[in-house]
Amino acid sequence: MYLESLSLDNCWWDEMKSLCFPQLKALSISNFGGSVLITISGFRSLQQLQRLVIINCALLEEIVEDVKGDEHAEMDTQTIFGLEQLKSVFFSCLPNLKSFIHGSNYECYMPSLKEVEVRNCGLLSLFRGSISRNLQQLETLVVFNCRLLEGIVEDGRGEAINFCKLKILWLMHLSSLKSFYREKKEMHLGSLNNSGISCVQFQPLFDGMVAFPSLKYLEIKDLEITDIWGNHNYDDYKNNFVASSFCKLYMLEVNHCRKLESVIPHAMLHRLRNLERLDVSYCRGLRNAFPSCIARDLTHLRQLRFIRCTMMREIIRGSEREEEEEEIIVFPELKELELVDLKILTCFWCCLSGKSSTFTYKVQFPSLVNFKLNSCGKINIEAIELGSDDSNCTLRSLYIESDNQMQLPCKWQVHLYNLKTISLSGCWWHDVESLYFPKLQELEVKSSGRSALFTVSGFRSLLQLQTLKISECALLEEIVEDVRGDEHAGMDTKTIELFQLDSVIFKDLPNLRIFAHGANYQYYMPALKKVEVDNCGLPSLFTSPVFRNLHLETLVISNCRLLEGIINDGRGDETSDTDDKIFILCQLSSVTLNDLPNLRSFSCSVSYAFNMPKLEKIHVLGCPQLENFTCLKTCTELVSVCAERL
Fold this sequence. Notes:
Blueprint: E1 5-9, E2 26-30, E3 36-38, H1 40-44, E4 51-55, E5 62-64, H2 69-73, E6 80-82, E7 88-94, E8 102-103, E9 106-109, E10 115-121, E11 125-128, H3 129-132, E12 140-144, E13 151-155, E14 161-162, E15 168-174, E16 179-183, E17 210-211, E18 217-223, H4 240-243, E19 251-255, E20 277-281, E21 290-291, H5 292-297, E22 303-307, E23 314-320, E24 328-330, E25 336-340, E26 347-353, E27 357-360, E28 362-364, E29 370-374, E30 384-385, E31 397-408, E32 421-429, E33 442-446, E34 452-454, H6 456-460, E35 467-471, E36 478-480, E37 495-497, E38 503-509, E39 522-524, E40 530-536, E41 542-543, H7 544-548, E42 554-558, E43 565-568, E44 582-584, E45 590-594, E46 601-603, E47 609-612, E48 617-621, E49 634-636, E50 640-643
Parallel strand pairs: 1-2, 2-4, 3-5, 4-7, 6-9, 7-10, 10-12, 11-13, 12-15, 13-16, 14-17, 15-18, 18-19, 19-20, 20-22, 21-23, 22-25, 23-26, 24-28, 25-29, 28-30, 29-31, 31-32, 32-33, 33-35, 34-36, 35-38, 37-39, 38-40, 40-42, 41-43, 42-45, 43-46, 44-47, 45-48, 47-49, 48-50
Antiparallel strand pairs: 8-9, 26-27
């Protein structure tokens, strides 16, 4: 047959001995019901094969029929043959597959193989040593959910193997995998020590028997390992390719390795200097990530993430205090730092000081762009420096959520000039006088224990603010601290101009009394489109001058028991001019008023007329005091009204 591409689903030939495909380049088999796919002679005919795909063959045990005993004695073929053009292999859902492309009486030579992906297969090992020694072109190796797999390479020669071009290695959901390299005598049972315990379980994932001089991306997920690298010194190896293992590693991800005790040991010193991304999550046995000597070595690290490592007390493991040469570690190129759900984390870098006490050292991130700290116990954030005194302001995003009330360090404020996003829960600055965020676009505050968040000058600095969200602040009385009397005499304006503010959301602020105005100031928000207020103590939302300059599209107010009107008619606002009593809300399309037991009208005392040409929906429920929208005329188009009564 002179086929170049063959794809078969749920079918195959009954007679395998005569199969011959000398021109075939791509072979794809799915839902085959047999235990053997092809004979050795048929497989040897695939000299032009470049891609092999086999999926969903539940009964398949061997790709190539393994001839044994007397049958093999009659064969006139060599037991080692080559598929010199094969570049890509993909096996998936072959639960009974016993071998890759080798058997007891044959082996396959694949010198051009670049990609291997094996998923949900019943293999005990993937490559024999003789095969793996010839994988000089292999660049990508992905092994996923092979629950019986004990080793990737099985060999008995005891010689180092070089995966010289491997760049991507993913090992995921391999519950039986103990080590990448396994000797034949270790397979299945493992050797026993004097206590009768298998020595294999103490073997690291990488033990120096396989070299990875070109590896850039390494992902390890859901492996029952205690050690990744071992304590051997790679520099002691005579083979140059072993000595250069992992030196080009760019990204390391370690997830769901529950028994892992350390991420990078001292033995890896000077080997991971090219590492830029380190991501560790759901490793519940992990107490720290690496020692201080490794931390100082990670000079090119750009992203560092630790998520839900529940036993982690510090990121950097310290030694005795007197052994540390310097009391600060700088990560000069780190851009992203994310620490999430590290419940007992106490510090970033701690050292023993005496028998029982600890000393916290400083860490510095002069290039940090995004910083996220979420539910991390009682971490000492005073020891975290966002930059040196002469460094640029690089931070763009600050996300901190604390389970306990926390005061943020005042020394951070000088490095927050270029912030665009702030999301803070359970924390704020004690000194609000120096807060200055001229480039901030999104501000979210939750569970703050303060009565006011900003001074007038600080809030006026928010010239780029677009979104304001404040929730669950039981003590908050006003957003902006209202300066009165002699203190106010030095102020040069009564207007806080927020030209870009587009959305305001307030929720669960029971003591909030003032929003868009104070005794000595009021807001100007010409871009405001959406206002949502839920369970707040406001008696009203806007003064008439503030409301007149709005371009609202959506207004939603719920569960505000003290609210009497949307507009507060302060003294001096009353007017007899008919034009001044008309509010033109050109963009307002939706109004929702829910559970407002004291709401009487849209305005508290003076009656205004409203022109709302785009109003489409009014939803009014639980407002028993509300008799009409306003005493004067309201002009709208056709409106959908949902109300108990008006």
